[in-house]
Amino acid sequence: MMHSNSNDSRVVLITGAAQRLGAATARELHGRGWRILVHCRQSREKADELAAELNVKRPQSCTVLQADLAQDAEVLKLASAAQAVWSRVDALINNASSFYPTPIGSATTENWDDLFSSNARAPFFLAQALAPELRRQQGAIINMLDIHAERPLREHTLYCMAKAASAMMTQALARELAPDIRVNGIAPGAILWPSLGGNTTMQEKVLAGIPMQRLGEPSDIARTIAFLLEGAPYITGQIIAVDGGRSL
Asked: Active site residue: 12, 14, 159, 169, which one?
């Protein structure tokens, strides 16, 4: 494993990496010798803290890039900034995502634009912009999906539609970018309760539907990502549910 920051150390861009699953993934890959490009939109302080933590372990191994993925120009700017930092990008993890209910009768075109831009549009245009560089490095793209891309979540129609688009994008890009770039998706089940928490009854109901009878850990997702990037040269176009059997 490369633990120096020579130009041989691989570089990964993780969108929405300041906290939660993105941060867990950054720590996991950093521990395996990767250099990390942490993207954030508003959580700049958290992103800077994460970068500082990783740079203490290995100087100049992590950089923060801020961009609003709802703005097309900023998506392209992020792609070129990512390539400029260390002159290489080996992997893109489309992790940033908006998630909130849009009950019928209350959904707006702004909700549509926001949910589709973060969950489908930005990941596609980021992948397209980085494709030449990823091809050069024989790299990989991983899209963070959701088990609800296949089975709708009540009152989240727009979110589920956007994730379904992202699932099809994963398969279509895998086909189009092969053999140089592998493209896969991860569909987390219940890993972390939403930041709003939720009530105990709701949580018990969710747990009752998980054969493993417990929530997953962020590290379950991070290790699956590491496997897809490092140990799965013949896997492409797949969406792996990391959900304790919930989708059964």
From this structure: 159
